[in-house]
């Protein structure tokens, strides 16, 4: 038995059902209480209600459990160190205690200001006709300088790119402008609502005084408060890296590189202060050596997101590739995971079967006719999971030939 295979489920309104997840061969479910406003306490009742929903067919079919929370979101006041942050930190601690009481022990979060992940195209056609998520730097510049018109935005980019963006913008029709704008402003995964342009600029303005150093300080303050509580109740917190892993829209991003992770791990040196190892996010940067990062942080890695991107002509352009066919050396990554799991077996430190989800997948086959959350259609993820599962079994067998007889 290797990684704990899971899939993300957005809750009862998700067009992908629990039965789909079960039939993909998963035993774990990754979900969140998306309906609870960010910053409010997740009550034991709400948590148990969701847990029971996930487990409701366990007597009849192969069992599913709620293995990971993704995400318990961090209120913006914490990221900005506003005075109300103390209240939100207390709420966060309480949610962790409540989750622990319900037996949920892995909690993912991120610390990206305002936006979560960003893409410029949610339906990029691949050569086989399936649809992928894509990020095009020029389109992002176009959004920033011509649609949002963020004050001072031009200064963040090379003048030739600003000019190319302007020329491209002039050729776009209303529908195309609207589509790009909605794509960038699509709020959090699990929500179908995009920010309005006006609202969005106001949120960005609130970060004027917060640069790289301030955001780091606020993150370390947060983790130093909450991780000891998590440790006490037996919960593993795991931060999700920035996606994409660089500054956007003048906002600082502080969880993009090995050095960022190093500093964060050192800021609170306990196991509960851990990492969601997302190969898709970290892998966008060629300077992130994924197997080596994995080996370095070892037992601080509590959750795995496995996917890969493919960089394009401009170093900041990428699309999400098939799980085994992008820039990430998935063989080397999975091998490092198998070795880490074997090490845990020997040392007894950490969960031996690290929860993993195939992150994103192409919209393909029957799913092309359906409306699903971008990146989270069933069949593409099922394909990714199946490929990774095979890869892991092959690596395990090659490292431990005696498994063949079991
Ligand atoms: C995208 C996801 C992220 C992730 C959050 C975690 O598909 O991987 O949105 O859920 O950043 O807090």
What can be said about this structure in brief?
By secondary structure, this protein is α/β, with parallel strands linked by helices.
Strand content bin: 5-15%
What is the β-strand count?
Answer: 12
- Overall form: globular
Distance between the termini: 11 Å
Mean pLDDT across the residues is: 96
Whole-number radius of gyration? Answer: 21 Å
In N-to-C order, the SSE pattern is EHEHEHHEEEHHHHHEHEHHEEEHEH
Ions, cofactors and other bound molecules:
D-mannose
CATH-defined topology of the largest domain: TIM Barrel
The CATH architecture of the largest domain is Alpha-Beta Barrel
Summary tags:
406 residues; alpha/beta; TIM Barrel; 2 domains; eight-stranded parallel barrel; four-stranded antiparallel β-sheet; 12 strands; 41% helix; binds D-mannose
Description:
This protein is of the alpha/beta class. It has 2 domains: 4-115 and 211-309 and 334-405, TIM Barrel (Alpha-Beta Barrel); 121-204, no CATH class. Helix content is 41%, strand content 14%. The protein contains 14 helices and 12 strands. The strands form 2 sheets. Strands 1-2-3-4-7-8-9-12 form an 8-stranded parallel barrel, surrounded by 4 helices. Strands 5-6-11-10 form a 4-stranded antiparallel beta sheet. The termini are close together. The model has no long low-confidence stretch (mean pLDDT 96). The structure holds D-mannose. Residues 70-71, 108-110, 116-117, 189, 240, 305, 359, 375 line the site of D-mannose (DNO).
